[in-house]
Write a structure and sequence with these properties.
about 0% strand, globular
Amino acid sequence: MRLKADLLLVLVALLWGSAFAVMRVAAGHHTIFLLNGARFLLGGLLLLPFTRLRGAFRRANAAYVLLAGLALFVAVGFQQAGLVTTTAGNGGFITILYVVIVPLMLWVGWKERPSALVSAAVAVAVVGGFLLSTGGSFRLHTGDALILAGSFFWAMHVVVVGRAQGKIAALPFALGQYLTCGLLNLGVGALFERPSGADLLAVTPAVLYTAVFSIAIGFTLQVIAQKQTAPNDAALLLSLEAVFAAFFGWIFLREHLAPVQLAGCGLILGAVVLVQVKNGKMKT
């Protein structure tokens, strides 16, 4: 079961990575909250026919659903806002810092000290993310602080999903967090955003693609997989998103990967292998 869960998280990273270029293009069209609201609500509607709601939500588990939705709302908002004024390379590297923040949150909040092997894997993944996303040359941009703030909320989301396991079924949890995130985004967007018709038309492909693949499939599989995978390990597996984002950028956007960036990919993969060694998955 654990190996299956880990493979599902790799699939999630692939789905998220494939959407990175789509969202980067959409970032230039003067709508952050309405874009995120539309795609999360659509993702929730796609999941609704498959979700059994009767008796799913109780006072004991509602806080986890609301916290997860709030974390998503803040994380995607900061990330999308940051992508307007920083490079995709900086954005990719700073986002991947949640692999450091997750074990720190668990250590400070729940006294769950990471093992030496997990700590080593986190360090390797961060170095790999830096080389992959920036090519070894990191220049600060105004959006970097926004994306760094978002990384804390991505980490919070991973922790909340892990803590919610056993308290609520996966599909109602996923649906609840999508609706929370979507409604918060639409509410803020209605108050502060006035995109043109051309802007709304331009971001429609991003809404449709990410609603189906990143949200309805990707985030739902994350919730299902984390029933069997610890938050620290999940964060490292999800860091493969950066590798897949680079791969799809090379395939579809003709983005060139320098040797140092390929080395970064190798380090992230090596970090994931370290975690699998810890869990006994690599024994012959």
